[in-house]
Amino acid sequence: MKKIIFVCTGNTCRSPMAMFLFNKIAKERNLDYIADSAGLATYGDPINPNSAKALAKIGINNTDYTSKGLTYYMVDEADLIVAMESVHKNALLNAGVDANKILVLAGGISDPYGGDEEVYFSCLEKISGGIEEMLKGDAFND
Fold this sequence. Notes:
By secondary structure, this protein is of the alpha/beta class. It has helices at about 15-30, 50-55, 70-75, 85-95, 115-135; strands at about 1-10, 35-40, 80-85, 100-105.
């Protein structure tokens, strides 16, 4: 099974939403992938309530999740690292991660932190579109 890690800053909004959505899609389509998520600056916080509400709107209700920091072990084990913004990609590159292992989802997903439920749902919709585009890429058609 191939491993994907979605990476953002605090691992409470974008990357957990991407992880939950990707895993739902992978299961529905019988893809041999599993996703995890992590952040570059985390504090062990629960998933943002508005992230959980956005996921619930599309039928993903099992969102008991606590943020975690990205580790070298996670990077080493991952087949693909999906950054939410170019700033995350640059941080990974500066840490020595292989550029061929990283992509930025949908050209960048803005942080919804501080926004209302609609801002989070809009973010989830952009993540969904980015995942669909990513699934059309070469990494998923081998």
